[in-house]
Design brief:
This protein is of the alpha+beta class. The chain has one helix and twelve strands, in the order ββββββββββββα. Keywords: Adaptive immunity, Disulfide bond, Glycoprotein, Immunity, Immunoglobulin domain, Membrane, Signal, Transmembrane, Transmembrane helix.
Length: 192
Amino acid sequence: GFYANLLLTQTPEHILTQTNNKTEILCELKKEHIGVYWYRWSQERQHFEFLVFSNTLGQTTYGTNVSQDKFSVHAARSHSSYSLHISHLHPSDNGTYYCSVSQSSQLFLGSGTQLSVADALPLPPKTTQTPVSKKPVPRIIKSKAASRKGPCSPLVWIPLAAGVLLLLLGLVLTTHHLYRLRQRLWLRTHRQ
């Protein structure tokens, strides 16, 4: 049977990469073992596939139709960790990869690494273009000065105050001018 396992640690949990790249999955062992098995679960094909077994002597045994150019296993000198290297990645390599060890006729699996291979990686949100079908979102653009104190910002009250001052000045000058005209008229009429 298969058992969740405390005998080994598998990293990373997720890998997202592009076609033709290569990647690596690490399996660290807590106890000594004769070697590590690597499996792939394909959600698409609903299939659990044996890929490769690597023993402590550095010998590898590949599963049926598994390419030795694509998969290779590298062991640390202490044999406390093994890494699965996958090259020439293709979307058909998508799946969850498991390292496992055998102990007392039971297979202990790692936590699994979800591998997703895409022809093109998704772009960051900044560079994506919004589809034409979306309704335009009205945007209110405020200048830094205008956003300081809302409608009472200097950009608003300075021109208003200047306008009011000009009007008052004009009113004062007009009133003064009319007052002088009235005085002249009054003087003219009283002289005669």
